[in-house]
């Protein structure tokens, strides 16, 4: 059971193309608003405290937007048109079962253009089976979950002030006044004797402009007297990212600046996880070892998929040495690659690239998204002071398997494992 304190779920939203009419004549009815963006109730507002009397389970997805014709292929991405629908169906199916997800983290880039009302409607249609506030679909498993949204760069496309994002999630963001939409907020979760703080932040300094300074002031106020045990930072762009054709760590520099500022204020060993979307793939890194923060990439839930490198240079993220995928996660992917190659066959170039052999000897090993996308979704469970992360891998035949688990135990750190087959 989840209890809410000081929740504000009914803050009025705006709607695309009708603000001036609304101000002059009052709010029109829904029938009079052809481009209205649906309201989606959120889990919590900035500063809310939630209390859980039993383990709390979140589904986590990112980058479920539709394809951008030409641009995605030019960027080296691959398109697998059924992945998004398969991910949504698997989440909905598991959410209907006891112990399944009851809440939905949305890590950003769920629309192609945040300024287009039609794209928000397309988001609703594609996520309808799992997103509270969308019109429920007919047929198939349906379990709509309350959202915890994060703004990505596509939410700002044609809408640098995030009005579409604010329309879709009317209570989102810290209160910054004047009808503006903030892309940062926090809430606390009291789970038994442990208090978790979740901070959603926006690392795109250049795009935010003067709002970056406002966000940093909010970070200062939010962490001035940090009365919590563990912290989870959530943002669209990661510090460490092994997705794509080449390493693209700490894009724009804002991600690392935020993490360093936050860690300076909260002290040692309270930052448990940094969760991001990043490139269109899934990844796990422990750059500071099992006692440091885990860096989790959940960007592979959509039909657009990126390659995933197994290691890469991290100079832009402030590291002289290379970083690599968490070893057991990497082994789980190699096992899936070998199984599929044994049972159905894969081109030699795909397995050679993944193992840096043959014509790829001497190059960085990578999972090729065209033939072997690392697609799927993540499940986060908070049970008192313990956090468990499970990866639901989408196999190449469209079915799903929980191939990897990592959990954090106080005084021990992160413990990776392979769930029993």
Please characterize this protein's 3D structure.
The structure is a single chain. The chain has helices at 19-25, 71-74, 83-95, 117-127, 163-168, 205-208, 211-222, 254-266, 327-343, 348-355, and strands at residues 2-5, 48-52, 56-61, 78-79, 103-106, 146-149, 185-191, 194-200, 230-234, 271-276, 282-285, 294-298, 304-305, 308-309, 311-312, 323-324, 366-367, 376-383, 386-394, 400-409, 413-417. It is α/β, with parallel strands linked by helices and 421 residues long. It has one domain: Metallo-dependent phosphatases (Purple Acid Phosphatase, chain A, domain 2, 4-Layer Sandwich). Strands 1-2-7-8-9-10-12-11 form an eight-stranded mixed sheet, with helices on one face. Residues 4-34 have low confidence and may be disordered.
Name a few traits of the molecule.
single chain, 421 residues, alpha/beta, Purple Acid Phosphatase, chain A, domain 2, eight-stranded mixed sheet, seven-stranded mixed sheet, 10 helices, globular
């Amino acid at each position: 059971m989840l209890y809410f304190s000081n929740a504000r779920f009914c803050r009025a939203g705006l709607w695309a193309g009708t603000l001036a009419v609304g101000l002059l004549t009052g709010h029109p009815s829904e029938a009079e608003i052809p481009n209205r963006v649906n309201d989606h109730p959120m889990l919590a507002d900035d500063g809310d405290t939630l209390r859980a009397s039993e383990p709390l389970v979140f589904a986590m997805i990112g980058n479920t937007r539709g394809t951008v014709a030409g641009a995605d292929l030019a960027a080296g991405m691959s398109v697998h048109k059924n992945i998004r629908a398969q991910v949504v169906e698997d989440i909905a199916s598991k959410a209907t079962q006891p112990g399944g997800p009851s809440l939905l983290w949305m890590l950003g880039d769920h629309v192609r253009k945040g300024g287009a009302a039609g794209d928000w409607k397309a988001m609703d249609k594609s996520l309808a089976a799992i997103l509270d506030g969308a019109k429920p679909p007919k047929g198939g498993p349906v379990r709509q979950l309350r959202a915890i949204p994060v703004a990505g760069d596509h939410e700002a496309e044609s809408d640098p002030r995030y009005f579409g994002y604010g329309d879709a999630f009317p209570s989102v963001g810290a209160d910054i006044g004047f009808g503006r939409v903030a892309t940062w907020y926090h809430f606390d979760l009291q789970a038994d004797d442990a208090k978790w703080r979740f901070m959603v932040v926006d690392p795109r300094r250049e795009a935010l402009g003067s709002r970056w300074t406002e966000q940093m002031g909010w970070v200062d106020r939010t962490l001035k007297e940090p009365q919590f045990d563990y912290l989870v930072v959530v943002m669209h762009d990661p510090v460490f990212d092994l997705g794509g054709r080449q390493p693209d760590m700490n894009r724009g520099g804002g991600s690392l600046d935020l993490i360093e500022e936050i860690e300076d204020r909260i002290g040692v060993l309270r930052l448990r996880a940094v969760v991001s979307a990043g490139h269109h793939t899934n990844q796990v890194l422990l750059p500071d070892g099992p006692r440091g923060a885990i860096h989790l990439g959940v960007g592979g839930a959509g039909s657009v998929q990126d390659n995933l490198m197994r290691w890469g240079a991290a100079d832009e993220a402030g590291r002289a040495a290379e970083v690599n995928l968490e070893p057991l996660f990497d082994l789980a992917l190699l096992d899936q690659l070998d199984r599929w190659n044994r049972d159905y066959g894969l081109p030699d170039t795909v397995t050679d690239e993944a193992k840096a052999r043959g014509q790829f000897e001497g190059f960085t090993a990578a999972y090729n998204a065209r033939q072997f996308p690392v697609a799927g979704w993540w499940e986060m469970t908070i049970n008192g002071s313990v956090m468990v992360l499970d990866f639901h891998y989408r196999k190449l035949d469209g079915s799903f398997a929980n191939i990897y688990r990592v959990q954090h135990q106080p005084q021990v750190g992160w413990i990776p494992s392979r769930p029993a087959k």
